[in-house]
TrEMBL record:
This is Helix-turn-helix domain-containing protein. Residues 16-65 form the Helix-turn-helix domain. InterPro entries: DNA-bd_dom_put_sf, HTH_17, WH-like_DNA-bd_sf. SUPFAM superfamilies: Putative DNA-binding domain (SSF46955). Transmembrane segments: none annotated.
Length: 70
């Protein structure tokens, strides 16, 4: 009988730069610039491939909020 309970080990597939680009609405080149400058979402290098964790993307997006009233 398979275990249907979610555990911390359950993970979504990692995002590719193309998927993240589409999600954020920015060019892939911008993601590479952010990586070089150390200002974008945390990136993981798997062999020669760059991948992003969705939870880290969402946390990074949440940190980008700006209070325009200030």
């Amino acid at each position: 009988m398979p275990n249907t309970q979610k555990t911390p080990d359950d993970r979504r597939p990692l995002a590719t730069p193309a998927e993240l680009s589409a999600y954020l609405g920015v060019p892939v080149a911008t993601l590479y610039q952010w990586r070089h400058r150390g200002i974008g979402p945390k990136v993981h290098k798997l062999g020669r491939h760059l991948r992003y964790r969705w939870t880290e993307i969402e946390a990074w997006v949440d940190q980008q909020s700006v209070d325009l009233a200030a």
